[in-house]
């Protein structure tokens, strides 16, 4: 089976050129788009749809650092178990503190300003973890990359919760 990296002629590594990924994606979309196969046989139409689906799945996976990391770890034999929520105590305490901060935001005098600051903190944490992940993958430190990926999942979920709360505050 062709890897998602092969679909876009990219090296099998965490650090990829996302601009190149986007360019290849658009090129492949133009050549494989199912609308080009309207007058083709049922088999050819089905194959075009399957190929377009594979290209879309590959693009969605590789454009995001978390899903790219999960996919790469899977390829390397270190799958990330989505249901495994065990983390070290220090990280869990940090998450509890951040969740408490999030819960208290709506009661502050300027909740939207506080939310902007909170979201910036989360984005910085995700950026820092992405840099860590890059180093871990380049050193082939799969267990650490797996741990960092799981930490990123926690921060991603926290960001989603914060964005939902921000939306509530706006309306």
TrEMBL record:
One of its GO terms (cellular component) is iron-sulfur cluster transfer complex. InterPro entries: DnaJ_domain, HscB, HscB_C_sf, HscB_oligo_C, J_dom_sf. HAMAP family: HscB. Co-chaperone involved in the maturation of iron-sulfur cluster-containing proteins. Seems to help targeting proteins to be folded toward HscA. Belongs to the HscB family. Interacts with HscA and stimulates its ATPase activity. This is Co-chaperone protein HscB homolog. It comes from Thioflexithrix psekupsensis.
